[in-house]
Specification:
With 294 residues, the chain is mainly alpha-helical. The protein is built from twelve helices and no strands. α3 runs parallel beside α7, α3 packs antiparallel against α9 and α7 packs across α9.
């Protein structure tokens, strides 16, 4: 007869798991809680009143930092990274379904960026674009285009170097997900579509894509959230503008009010909102597929 009492090992593991969850999510809960303090609130406990005062202060701006512009830049970059990550991951997943010459080497080259230190990747990309700047300026000088040379600034930017830096972080995750999906994908569905006269594009659009859609949404979620929070790979590769995480990092040494916590809460809410949207879309697609099978 099995006893309902748990062993000592169970309670030890339960306590360890509880401590781990508190260590993982405790700082986030504390920041959210302290961001709702009253006007007299500080950066530490005890909590002094409850209000939205510091969110109003955040909306007014934090000194010379334009939080609104940084937020728009992060959103724009995150959306661009999401689109490129999804598109390239799906195309690579389809390509790797067939045996490619040098495919293994190509795979390891792409995934290698995961084990490279982020700051080294950022420094390398920044150096490449500075060399590109030197080359462009030299060409303009040789062509005698003095006006263009004076107006030229740098190729470093949000949708050039920063986009490339973020893709070195998001693409490997997207590729690994796609490879796992297609390893379990039954090609009989595509063969049946071809037997019924479907073209390769029709087979992909009406058969393959609906089946892999939840995974594609997951890749998009990874792409946006990883880009949204990235600091190290952006720091040396973005040029003369900053994303929201970089501004937040800089403000930690200058802002001494709960406004910094309000900003952290806003960024967390955006990440959670994207995750909720992705999970909702995946659930809706799954439900739709079940209805279609009936």
């Amino acid at each position: 007869m099995r006893s309902d009492r748990h062993s000592t090992g169970f309670w030890f593991l339960a306590a360890f798991f509880t401590l781990f969850v508190l260590f993982l999510y405790g700082p986030m809960f504390i920041i959210v809680l302290l961001s709702f303090q009253g006007p007299e609130g500080g950066l530490t406990f005890p909590l002094r009143g409850v209000s939205l005062h510091w969110f109003h202060k955040l909306a007014e701006g934090l000194g010379v930092v334009d939080i609104g512009a940084a937020l728009k830049r992060s959103l724009a970059l995150g959306l661009a990274v999401t689109v490129f990550t999804v598109l390239l991951s799906v195309l690579a997943g389809l390509a790797f379904r067939k045996k490619l010459a040098g495919g293994n080497t190509l795979f390891f080259v792409v995934v290698a960026s995961l084990i490279m230190p982020s700051i080294i990747v950022s420094l390398g990309i920044g150096l490449e674009f500075r060399l590109l700047d030197s080359g462009i300026k030299k060409v303009l000088e040789l062509l005698g285009m003095s006006g263009a040379l004076e107006e030229y600034g740098t190729a470093l930017g949000l949708f050039t170097s920063a986009l490339g830096a973020h893709l070195t972080w998001t693409l490997p995750f997207g590729l690994l997900i796609m490879f796992a999906v297609f390893n379990r994908f039954n090609p009989a569905y595509e063969e049946a579509a071809r037997d019924l006269g479907a073209t390769p594009w029709q087979g992909f659009r009406h058969v393959v894509l609906p089946l892999i859609a939840p995974s594609v949404i997951g890749i998009g979620m990874f792409g946006f959230t990883l880009s949204w929070d990235e600091i190290a790979r952006t720091s040396q590769a973005i040029g003369d503008v900053n994303t929201l995480p970089l501004e937040l990092q800089g403000l930690t040494t200058t802002v001494t009010t709960p406004s910094i916590y309000a900003l952290g809460t806003v960024t967390t809410v955006v990440s959670l909102g994207v995750m909720a949207l992705a999970m909702g879309l995946a659930w809706w697609l799954g439900k739709r597929q079940k209805k279609g099978k009936r």
